[in-house]
Design brief:
It contains five helices and no strands. The chain is mostly helical. The protein starts with 14 loop residues before the first helix and ends with a helix.
């Protein structure tokens, strides 16, 4: 004689079970209706989430693009301050001017491209230069660790 190990097949005739009114799930009245109700509720929630999906993505994209404009403004401001502090003569002035020019080009790039374009450019760079990307990530993580630690 083989015994079932399925908990729903085990019938406990103990006084506690009888007092609690426990019934196995397969015999419980309305169990299938309850399961159908849960399935309906889950389907409704999924449909509602699908409806929100495009709106949430568009809002996130708009916020990212607005952040790009803010970052571009900050970079231009920093470039302007760098030009003022670097002066007009000497090696320091030349280096400051080159860095400021690069910063201004970066700000222009951020203003002219949206977040999707920038993401595509980053992907292309990573695929074209995997070793430089990995080295940059390691150096960046080291510096971040030094500053935060």
């Amino acid at each position: 004689m083989q015994r079932s190990t399925d908990p729903r097949d085990i019938v406990d005739d103990s006084p506690m079970t009888q007092l609690s009114g426990y019934q196995p799930a397969k015999d419980a009245p309305g169990a299938s209706k309850s399961a159908e109700g849960v399935q309906e509720h889950v389907k409704d929630a999924v449909e509602t989430a699908k409806g929100y999906g495009p709106d949430v993505v568009q809002k996130a994209k708009a916020q990212a693009d607005a952040g790009l404009d803010t970052a571009a403004g900050g970079i231009e401001s920093a470039a302007s301050k760098l030009r003022e502090r670097a002066g007009s003569d000497g090696v320091q002035a030349q280096a400051g001017a080159k860095v400021a020019d690069t910063m201004e080009r970066s700000a222009d790039y951020l203003r002219e491209h949206d977040s999707a374009d920038i993401f595509d450019d980053v992907q292309r760079y990573v695929k074209a230069h995997p070793l430089q990307t990995a080295a940059g990530a390691v150096i960046g993580a080291f510096l971040l660790g030094r500053f935060l630690g």
